[in-house]
Amino acid sequence: MIDTAQATEARRSNGRIHLDKQSPAAYQALVKTADTVRTTAAEAGLDRILVELVNLRVSQLNGCAFCLDVHTRAALRAGETARRLGVLAAWRDTELFTARERAALALAEATTHPADALAQDRAYVQAREVLDDAQMSAVIWVAITINAFNRVSILSKHPVRETPAH
């Protein structure tokens, strides 16, 4: 059962229901899905940096500050560079991303904006050149999952707070 004092405090802080606290079983199911998708991606041969680039690009498109914060830190821990993270929003205009990363980013964008059928078709063609079926499926699942987390965080107005220096 939900801790009603915790849910009430979450609502008071920003006027929104924190969906993860209000419906913890549903949120934990989403977390479990993310864990399964992360394993699926690793089994398909996608490294953690590529997964985090997808998480970040989708979060950029959706404007999710909370997820951008979480996944920027995760990407840096995985060995991604600040330079590449700094230009990720303009990845098409750089030479800093591999063909595989470009294909994954295009597929993630097409997953995030499914109404753009032409972009989907182009993304699939590009992905087929460098990703196998398992990798394409994993990228799409990563994008679907982070889209769901973006919606939870955006609709809950999860705050991005300063973290203490270590």
Describe the structure using short key phrases.
166 residues, mainly alpha
Structure, explained:
The chain has 166 residues and is an all-alpha fold. The chain has helices at residues 4-14, 19-22, 24-43, 48-62, 65-77, 82-87, 99-112, 117-130, 133-156. The relative contact order is 0.17. The model has no long low-confidence stretch (mean pLDDT 92). Helix content is 73%, strand content 0%.
In the predicted model, the low-confidence regions spanning at least 5 consecutive residues are none
Largest sheet: none
Helical residue percent band: over 70%
Q: How many beta strands in the DSSP annotation?
A: 0
Average residue pLDDT:
92
Helices, by number, come to 9
Strand content: under 5%
Order of helices and strands: HHHHHHHHH
Q: What is the molecular shape?
A: globular
Structural class: mainly alpha
Rg result: 17 Å
Straight-line distance between termini: 36 Å
